Amino acid sequence: MHNLPSLVTTSITSSLLKASAAPNTKSLLDYYHSSTPPTTAIMSLPETQKAIIFNTTTNTLSYDPSAPLPPASASETEYLIQVHSTAITNGELTWAPFVNWPEYHVPCYDVSGTILNRVANSPFEPGQKVYGRVMADHEGTARQYTTIIPSETALVPKGLSMVEAASIPMSALTAWQALFEQGLLTGSYDKGSVPRVDGEGQIIGGQAQGKRLLILGAAGGVGLMAVQFAKLAGAYVAGTASSKNTAYLKELGIDEVIDYTQISMQAWVAGDAAKKFDLVFDCAGRKSMLDGWHAVKDDGVYVSVVPGFKEPEGGKPAGVRTAWFVMVSRGEELERISRLIEKGVVKGTVDSVWKIEEFEEAFGKTAGGHARGKVIIKLADEE
Ligand SMILES: NC(=O)c1ccc[n+]([C@@H]2O[C@H](COP(=O)([O-])OP(=O)(O)OC[C@H]3O[C@@H](n4cnc5c(N)ncnc54)[C@H](OP(=O)(O)O)[C@@H]3O)[C@@H](O)[C@H]2O)c1
To answer: Could you report the per-residue pLDDT of 50-102, keeping only the tens digit for each?
Structure first.
């Protein structure tokens, strides 16, 4: 048994971690927004499945060993997949006000698994191993059988384990869109202007040479991806993390690790304009976010994905552009990232792997705020 961390952050209150009795199956049907028969009516599948349920009224998580399968109607337009693994995103249980979740909602939005059905006019076939990020207004993937829309789906990169695959979509797409689409690190978001593998299998990078990037929270799921993408693009990359993560970040190619437990960015920059950054990417938030403002160049860009984004008191420097955004799940973009993974120049980082019955420990590990990479819940044994 793993103990819950003593630091339970704003992302999840301790009440969220208290298991409640599994809700009854009748009311669970509500969370599929549908009274159509479950998928078992059309396929030879079990009657029920294991699932994690988030009760949005009581803010509690529970484990249900006999939850219903997705309704048959969903599998006409979405892939029904047998889930191998799913991943938790820090803070995800606080998203209820922004999405229309019913009382009982399945959490976790990253998934790897095997397609079970055929969807007309879609690229993938039953039996193929896929991964993707389900958007948060959809039921999540912490269950044995789930659905995902074709445009959010990509084939699992060759050679990648299904556990590692589940660690990638949300973090990779968020980092990619933050650096290249919102931050314009390479000057343009055009497909030809960002790192890629070309038709001959050559890795094309170096488009951000001469640029300086700072990642606040470089050792989290998103930050670790951002380090790898920015290095491929040829930028000078610094990141904040505690010293226990320095060696790992160096292995991924980071140029400089700034230990946020020892020095603030304001003190590190010390008024020296040459040390400032073209792009500051904030994956840490709170005090670090306000401190990070000291590190952006006067004509630089500050991109954040952390809830609670604020400009500094007294306003930001006039020339600084800011962006706070929510990532968009794009299977086609994930496919292009898959090519970089297959070349061995980008990898996922798995902090820890848990069984579904260990959901409290798994969510507690993420909420502690110090996971290195992603916390995975594994639902199937076979690869
Ligand atoms: N807007 C969107 O579309 C979107 C998408 C995905 C994620 N997010 C948000 O982005 C944030 C980051 O997500 P994530 O998955 O990367 O988080 P995470 O994996 O939970 O981040 C954990 C990491 O943060 C580091 N850390 C903790 N406090 C820090 C600080 N003050 N300064 C620097 N590093 C610190 C820890 O390193 P040490 O152990 O070394 O301290 C740990 O490695 C979350 O708030 C998440 O909700 C937003």
So the answer is: 999 999 999 999 999 999 999 888 888 999 999 999 999 999 999 988 898 99
Distance between CA atoms of residues 131 and 101, nearest Å: 23
Q: What is the maximum span of the chain, computed from C-alpha positions, in angstroms? A: 67
Residues β-bridged to residue 129? 114
Pairing of strands 256-259, 236-241: parallel
CA gap 320, 304 in Å, rounded: 13
What the block records as the tokens of 164 is: 């590692």
Task: Judge if pTM exceeds 0.90.
Answer: yes
Which residues make beta-bridge pairs with 155? 130
H or E segment at 166?
A: helix 162-166
- Name the DSSP class of 266: H
What DSSP string describes 53-73?
A: EEETTTTEEEEEEEEEPPBGG
The CB of 349 under 6 Å from ligand 1? The reply is no
Is the C-beta atom of 179 inside 6 A of ligand 1?
no
Buried/exposed code over 194-215 (b: 16+ C-beta within 10 A; e: otherwise) = bbbbeeeeeeebebbeebbbbb
Q: Ligand 1 centroid to 365 CA: how many Å?
A: 12
Question: Any idea of the CA torsion for 9, 351, 216, 308, to the nearest 10 degrees?
Answer: -30
In one-letter notation, the amino acid at residue 90 is: N
**Cα 261 from chain centre:** 25
Tokens at 250, concatenated = 């160096």
In whole angstroms, give the CA distance from residue 105 to residue 359. 15
Question: What span, in angstroms and rounded, lies between the C-alpha atoms of 347 and 21?
Answer: 38
